[in-house]
Design goal:
- This protein is mainly beta.
- It has one domain: Ribosomal Protein L14, CATH 2.40.150.
- The chain has a five-stranded mixed beta barrel.
- A hairpin with a 5-residue loop joins strand 2 and strand 3.
- The two termini are 17 Å apart.
Length: 121
């Protein structure tokens, strides 16, 4: 679970280094979890990347430090908070996904991101 002003690590090669959450659209509260799309601002970007510094982007959350309960009774948690920069159609703007992603990403309907990931946990 992440909230406003949380810093995310970019889990793709779009050129963003860090992402700061500035909005959680479609939610009453200010919290988001695995599989949610949030509005972020890019904090530090690679000069040769697709995104630029201080650009507002939509990001899909793929890893969180806070554990998330699953329907079978197990819990999943990761070492960092990470997200993938996506476009309006829900496709990743980068060409590679770095690190593992949660299975909830595929359950929500982002099959392209799940298929690009090296490992789906």
């Amino acid at each position: 679970m992440v909230q406003l002003r949380t810093m995310l690590v970019s889990a793709d090669n779009s050129g963003a280094k860090r992402l700061m959450i500035i909005g959680v659209p479609g939610r009453v509260g200010k919290f988001a979890t695995l599989g949610d799309v949030v509005l972020c601002v890019v904090k530090g970007a690679d000069a040769a990347g697709i995104v630029t510094d201080h650009e507002k982007v939509r990001v899909l959350i793929v890893r969180t430090r806070k554990e998330v309960g699953r329907s079978d009774g197990t819990y999943i948690r990761f070492d960092d908070n990470a997200g993938v920069v996506i476009d309006k159609q829900g496709l990743p703007r980068g060409t590679r996904i770095l690190g593992p992603v949660a299975r909830e990403i595929k359950d929500v309907g982002y099959n392209k991101i799940a298929s690009l990931a090296r490992e789906v946990i």
